[in-house]
Specification:
Number of domains: 1
CATH topology: Immunoglobulin-like
Helix content: 10-25%
Shape: elongated
Number of helices: 1
Order of helices and strands: HEEEEEEEEEE
CATH class: Mainly Beta
CATH architecture: Sandwich
Radius of gyration: 20 Å
């Protein structure tokens, strides 16, 4: 009887300790419709939260979806479009929204750099694309 109570107590303590060390993670799905491979730099408000995501080529007819898991934070996002003739530097587009509030599941759509985006969606979907180019530094 005492061994059973002791085992249940130890199990309860282990569950409480595991629950306290558990860190909530957020899923982000990136949909590439740009026609070029892209790379996305995410820098969180906490300096340790930094991600550099690579997304292969996808286009409007055959978009490529890739899902990543990251720590919840408010991230500053920069998307780099990688040209086949310049695979090292690429270029980034100025975007209306470069902030991702990653506290819940997100879907990010990357459009062509020359395509403008519209806001007003009720869903947590962020679209990148604008009418200007700037060289990555």
């Amino acid at each position: 009887m005492r061994r059973g109570i002791l085992a249940v107590t130890i199990l309860a303590l282990l569950l409480i300790a595991a629950n306290q060390s558990y860190q909530h993670l957020v899923e982000i799905t990136v949909i590439n419709k740009s026609g070029l491979p892209v790379e996305m730099s995410l820098t969180g408000s906490n300096a340790e939260n930094f991600y550099y995501l690579r997304i292969p080529k996808g286009d409007r007819d055959a978009p490529l979806e890739k899902t990543f898991t990251l720590l919840p934070d408010v991230y500053r996002a920069t998307v780099y479009y990688i040209e086949p003739w310049d695979p090292v530097y690429g270029y980034d587009c100025s975007s209306k929204s470069d902030t991702l509030n990653a506290n819940h599941k997100l879907r990010v759509t990357i459009l062509e750099c020359t395509r403008t985006t519209r806001g007003g969606s009720d869903y947590p979907i962020i679209k990148f694309g604008a009418s200007g180019r700037s060289r990555r530094r």
